[in-house]
Amino acid sequence: xxxxxxxxxxxxxAAALGLVARVEAVSVTETIRAAIDGLIAARLSDAEWRQRAxxxxxxxxxxxxxxxxxxxxxxxxxTIGESS
Length: 84
Known about the structure:
By secondary structure, this protein is mainly α. The chain is built from 4 helices and no strands.
């Protein structure tokens, strides 16, 4: 599955992106994908960021269920303990 996105860039960003793509002999789309992949890899390798992502995900889940994160955590701990 793919997703189509519209990206608004400044003139300077667009020119620099075009330069990078041209010098690397790849499309602007491939240049953007590589940059996104690099950003994702950097974030996923950052332990502090991963903790923030987990908390954000738990908060969204708790909000969707109409409970607090504090109420949800014991359920997560039991589930993790059972799968170990």
